[in-house]
Amino acid sequence: MNIETKFLVETALLTHGLKSIDNETLVKLWPWEHKCITWVDRGEIIIGNINEFISFRNRAKELIRIDKDIFIESCNNGISGALTASGTMMAAKEKGIHIAVTAGMGGIGDIIGEELCADLPAIATMDVTLIATSPKDVIDIEGTIKWLLNHDVSIWGKDTDTVDGFMVTDKPVKLTGKYNGQPLKGKTLLLNPVPNEMRLKDLTIIEKAKNAGKEAEERGEYYHPAANAMIDTLSFGRSSELQLKSLIENSIWANELTR
Question: Domain 8-201+242-257 has what CATH class?
Fold first, then answer.
């Protein structure tokens, strides 16, 4: 493990979720060259830099999404895949790292196999802090926050004590409080919301994205890439820009917290 690696960044979004962001743009926008991006390649946990990741990203069509529930099985069976938030937390645990980074996280919803997304029990049981933007707009944000609080998870917001959506704005949901340097230990979630003025204004986009996700499920495909692709199309690429910027901002926060 590279000695500079103090946090890990998920790759499900970077691999399958940024329809309008090409490799050249991704490399240009990524803020540093050190190893902090993680994925599983033929069963091996890889921690690489942005250029090493691009070679993996080029194989996106053959790669699965690996979460906490299938992480060990995937490693044991030599599978290759991008890591979700909970999968990244598993990789962090294996490598002795205590912060994982994502953008939009999973939660409570009606997505097949994710009625209770693996992100939630991962946060509630593992000694790894997750930095995220918000639960995704396509799920029940209020129900997600309630589940975490009911399972004794501390949820701290960056400069805020509420969360009110990811790429669009909805009703505010109360968190544990603002983050003011509280110790980062197990059962901890840090949220760094996108500023409201930067978010998408057309709320109908989310319903259309949900429909696209459900249609993908019916075809036996992944929900989230299809939903993301629809949001990207309807926002003329703006959603991909927002998600990448958010993931980068969360990574910068992780870097600050681990100096």
Answer: alpha beta
